[in-house]
């Protein structure tokens, strides 16, 4: 029965809440309609009373209990060992906690083209925080969701792992499914597509396989880089693509790199991938990271002081999945040790996982911030323009990269397509100018703070 209760709970709370509060609970006495639950400390006990009693009662009712009861008992201290930062988290690792169990994939014969159940319910547009790192991809996805087959076809989204590609694809799927219940939506990873094709060939069912994929209104294919080197799958996908494209059906592809960088991809596929719109997602800036943490905490109905969220956002910089994992770790650590959220607690909870100084600054971060500051683009700054309004930002960018990243002069030179003496010149020029020009000095300081994710963003 506890398992059933948990299953009910899981559907009604966020993963963060589930992992933090429910996974560590020990069922002590479980009978029809009445539960005795062991919790780690009185803080947890109060928390359950205040937040989850109704939910647990509802779960019991849904299982047929007429007068359900729930009692909590604090487990003896021996079992309540202090969770040290280097202990594994109490519940599944963050990554394991992310996706809900998915229903078994429908067999190709059953409901062709309708596996919207494989869309993660949390991956919606509402739950997607938009920042400078992903706003183009977001806008493109929204445009495609609003007029599938007409806006951009295919839409190709690329970016590093854990930055929201899958989330955005699912969001389009949900959007369409909600407005047009009759539309057929197919989400598939490239791996699944490949495996299904192999099975279909083995079982002599390639016709069914084709019909299934060629009869959808929206085809979402995740991690298309895995097509590399798979000739038979590429061949099949080529025909699927053509069939859909010709009948104006929307195709969205994701990859960890742009089409031109996918090795051993047939030229004809590559060029098709480039027919529509190619858009990327970058690592989130500090402000976006804070906003994502805030949204997660709010959804988890957990009140965490802003400064704690900021600390987490400063330590985990590259990947949103890790960012969410770090938040979960902090929450679990605080609740298990019965301490309120504070910067110190967060730092401790994360100390073994993320080295505090690891907030590494990338050259592209600097470039992006400088471009934004001067109202230009990274490409122009790295380009060959010699107008003063591009030369200054270029020198500022080189100066800040030299100061904030560990890169050598030749490396920076290469990044800008120039040699190291140019960079050296830029660095001494800016150093010099800052002494004479307070406005420039203020701009550089503001940029430095922003890049390092310090408070006081605006000058
Ligand atoms: P990818 O497919 O690029 O590897 P995912 O789409 O799986 O990344 O995203 C990883 C995690 O980060 C997911 O839990 C997702 O919900 C979350 N996430 C990514 N981008 C955002 C965003 N902009 N706002 C909120 N959550 C996000
Ligand atoms: Mg993905």
From TrEMBL:
<feature type="domain" description="AAA+ ATPase">
    <location>
        <begin position="151"/>
        <end position="279"/>
    </location>
</feature>
<dbReference type="InterPro" id="IPR010921">
    <property type="entry name" value="Trp_repressor/repl_initiator"/>
</dbReference>
<keyword id="KW-0547">Nucleotide-binding</keyword>
<dbReference type="InterPro" id="IPR024633">
    <property type="entry name" value="DnaA_N_dom"/>
</dbReference>
<comment type="subunit">
    <text>Oligomerizes as a right-handed, spiral filament on DNA at oriC.</text>
</comment>
<dbReference type="Pfam" id="PF08299">
    <property type="entry name" value="Bac_DnaA_C"/>
</dbReference>
<dbReference type="Pfam" id="PF11638">
    <property type="entry name" value="DnaA_N"/>
</dbReference>
<feature type="binding site">
    <location>
        <position position="166"/>
    </location>
    <ligand>
        <name>ATP</name>
    </ligand>
</feature>
<dbReference type="GO" id="GO:0005524">
    <property type="term" value="F:ATP binding"/>
</dbReference>
<dbReference type="GO" id="GO:0005737">
    <property type="term" value="C:cytoplasm"/>
</dbReference>
<dbReference type="InterPro" id="IPR020591">
    <property type="entry name" value="Chromosome_initiator_DnaA-like"/>
</dbReference>
<dbReference type="GO" id="GO:0006270">
    <property type="term" value="P:DNA replication initiation"/>
</dbReference>
<comment type="similarity">
    <text>Belongs to the DnaA family.</text>
</comment>
<dbReference type="InterPro" id="IPR013317">
    <property type="entry name" value="DnaA_dom"/>
</dbReference>
<dbReference type="InterPro" id="IPR018312">
    <property type="entry name" value="Chromosome_initiator_DnaA_CS"/>
</dbReference>
<keyword id="KW-0067">ATP-binding</keyword>
<feature type="binding site">
    <location>
        <position position="165"/>
    </location>
    <ligand>
        <name>ATP</name>
    </ligand>
</feature>
<comment type="function">
    <text>Plays an essential role in the initiation and regulation of chromosomal replication. ATP-DnaA binds to the origin of replication (oriC) to initiate formation of the DNA replication initiation complex once per cell cycle. Binds the DnaA box (a 9 base pair repeat at the origin) and separates the double-stranded (ds)DNA. Forms a right-handed helical filament on oriC DNA; dsDNA binds to the exterior of the filament while single-stranded (ss)DNA is stabiized in the filament's interior.</text>
</comment>
<feature type="region of interest" description="Domain I, interacts with DnaA modulators">
    <location>
        <begin position="1"/>
        <end position="88"/>
    </location>
</feature>
<keyword id="KW-0238">DNA-binding</keyword>
<dbReference type="InterPro" id="IPR003593">
    <property type="entry name" value="AAA+_ATPase"/>
</dbReference>
<dbReference type="GO" id="GO:0003688">
    <property type="term" value="F:DNA replication origin binding"/>
</dbReference>
<feature type="region of interest" description="Disordered">
    <location>
        <begin position="82"/>
        <end position="118"/>
    </location>
</feature>
<dbReference type="GO" id="GO:0005886">
    <property type="term" value="C:plasma membrane"/>
</dbReference>
<dbReference type="Pfam" id="PF00308">
    <property type="entry name" value="Bac_DnaA"/>
</dbReference>
<dbReference type="InterPro" id="IPR001957">
    <property type="entry name" value="Chromosome_initiator_DnaA"/>
</dbReference>
<feature type="region of interest" description="Domain IV, binds dsDNA">
    <location>
        <begin position="335"/>
        <end position="459"/>
    </location>
</feature>
<dbReference type="InterPro" id="IPR013159">
    <property type="entry name" value="DnaA_C"/>
</dbReference>
<dbReference type="GO" id="GO:0006275">
    <property type="term" value="P:regulation of DNA replication"/>
</dbReference>
<dbReference type="InterPro" id="IPR027417">
    <property type="entry name" value="P-loop_NTPase"/>
</dbReference>
<keyword id="KW-0446">Lipid-binding</keyword>
<protein>
    <recommendedName>
        <fullName>Chromosomal replication initiator protein DnaA</fullName>
    </recommendedName>
</protein>
<keyword id="KW-0963">Cytoplasm</keyword>
<feature type="region of interest" description="Domain III, AAA+ region">
    <location>
        <begin position="118"/>
        <end position="334"/>
    </location>
</feature>
<feature type="binding site">
    <location>
        <position position="164"/>
    </location>
    <ligand>
        <name>ATP</name>
    </ligand>
</feature>
<feature type="binding site">
    <location>
        <position position="162"/>
    </location>
    <ligand>
        <name>ATP</name>
    </ligand>
</feature>
<dbReference type="GO" id="GO:0008289">
    <property type="term" value="F:lipid binding"/>
</dbReference>
<keyword id="KW-0235">DNA replication</keyword>
<dbReference type="InterPro" id="IPR038454">
    <property type="entry name" value="DnaA_N_sf"/>
</dbReference>
<feature type="domain" description="Chromosomal replication initiator DnaA C-terminal">
    <location>
        <begin position="362"/>
        <end position="430"/>
    </location>
</feature>
